[in-house]
Amino acid sequence: MTQAFFGKPQATFTPGGAHVAVYLVPVFEGRLTVFEVEAPGLRGRWLPWTVMGYGENPYETAAALADDWCDGAVAALEIADALSFPFDADGWELALVYRAELTALPAGDAHRRPVQYPPGEADAIGPFDPVDLVRWVEAGGGNRETGTGRREAGGGNREPGGGRREEGGGSPEGPLVF
């Protein structure tokens, strides 16, 4: 059995490589809040996410996502789950999921607008099953049960910050060394 040893930091995803991603599950008034993104080469509903920079603190990475995507209107930010996914053909992703309790609905911008699901409802978004998203929303933070997480083999090319990109890969600063 091989172990998860990480190589030197890279400027982008590498075939067969590994990375640590940080995802944000924004919750406003008890409802899952996602972002409808429409930009050149990017389209769909996303959760805020990014590839964590080499040696960075996961909580600080999640807080930066909350500032950028949710206008910093966060009352509580707590780890919700840690999941493992295959990435592209032979790569691997460790996903750290944070639940962000929002104090206001984010304003959005020209390329992304917030969308709220009815209480207790969610669609599959990114690698996550609806049941996991609903569980994290309803947990009120701090739920550390194992998720079912899903991602089809191949995973697709994704852009840090969420969603899928039609061409090219992301631009992480490099893998995390434990």
Task: Give a quick set of tags describing it.
two-stranded antiparallel ribbon, 7-stranded mixed β-sheet, 178 residues, single chain, mainly beta, 2 helices, disordered C terminus
Number of helices: 2
Strand content: 35-45%
Low-pLDDT parts are 141-178
> What about the largest sheet?
7 strands, mixed
Q: Please report the total strand number as a whole number.
A: 9
Radius of gyration (Å): 15 Å
Name the structural class: mainly beta
- Judging from the principal axes of the Cα atoms, what is the shape? globular
Query: Mean of residue pLDDT?
Result: 80
End-to-end CA span:
18 Å
* Oligomer class: single chain
Descriptive report:
By secondary structure, the protein is mostly beta strands. Helices cover about 15% and strands about 35% of the residues. The protein has helices at about 60-70, 130-140, and strands at about 20-30, 30-40, 40-45, 50, 75-85, 90-100, 110-115, 160, 160-165. Strands 1, 2, 3, 4, 5, 6 and 7 form a 7-stranded mixed sheet that branches. A hairpin with a 2-residue loop joins strand 8 and strand 9 (about 160-165).
